[in-house]
Amino acid sequence: MASDVIRTVALVNSLTATTISIVANISVIAFIATQRRSSFKGHNYIYTILYIAFVHIIYSINQVLAAPMIHIHTDELIFVNNGVLQHETAGQVSLCIFSFFVIYSVLFCSTQFIIKYFIICRFNNRNRSDKIYSLHIVTFLIAFSWSFLLGWALWDSREHNVKEGHGLDAEFAGKPSLDSSIRENPALVVAIFLLFFLVLVSLLVMIFCSRRITLTLKNLRSDKSKNIQIRMYKILLAETVLPLMLIHLPLLASCFLPLINLHVDIILDSLPLLYAWYPALDPLVVLWNLKMKDIKMKKFYKRSTTVLAVAVVTSA
């Protein structure tokens, strides 16, 4: 059972990760925005990096609002809002938004691999390669549909909120939550099955595309094109491994354990602590790998520091 210490750590963890995430993602946006368009090759992928940075900021803000904790009581799966947003309805909505970002991160990674696969291995015409980016719309719709299904399956009125009457500790009383019995809720079973299915298919797609991309890159004759694609590919791999380790596997464990009647409360309550760090660590990896042509990160930070110092002196 979650303790007050774990709940406090969860909130502090979310606040810390969100602060780092906002600063790091704004740095990514500022770095790309201050460079000339001609400095970048593969403009669509740069726009994708910018898009991911904005998504990370929204995800991090919602993480502070929700700071989700997962609890299992008998066969009941419960998502508890431990964040700063403690209004019942708004707190439940923030949990639904969290579920959207979780599945969206899974699908987005596989979509990125598919796009890179077609661009590197299939398309030689840039006009054709531009159209493949429309897959992001399909990804968004699938993620939204799944999160809507999960929210509908778990959504509960005030009388079914986590409280002592449900046999849980009084420490959960009054907190916004989404909960339901797994065995008695067919919609929840379908949602969990779809989660496993989507994650499994996404992993298989990423493995397939990764192998094909690696083979194609080895056969590229142009060193310049090869270096650019390898650099982009490294960023893509980093943006895949981080959510896999920090979000997808912990969430799957949280959903799978009750199905086999294995309840390890302290583990389940602690797993969501990892969720907040994906949008904080991912932009740091992007900044580390984002070295295109003769662009140097040190020059960017030196220039940014100088501008900030001038602004402070002027305002004083």
TrEMBL record:
Keywords annotated in UniProt: Membrane, Transmembrane, Transmembrane helix
State which residue ranges cross the membrane: 12-33, 45-72, 92-120, 132-155, 187-214, 235-260, 272-290
- InterPro entries according to UniProt: 7TM_GPCR_serpentine_rcpt_Str
Superkingdom of origin organism: Eukaryota
Q: What is the name of the protein in this document?
A: G-protein coupled receptors family 1 profile domain-containing protein
Question: Native species of this protein?
Answer: Ancylostoma ceylanicum
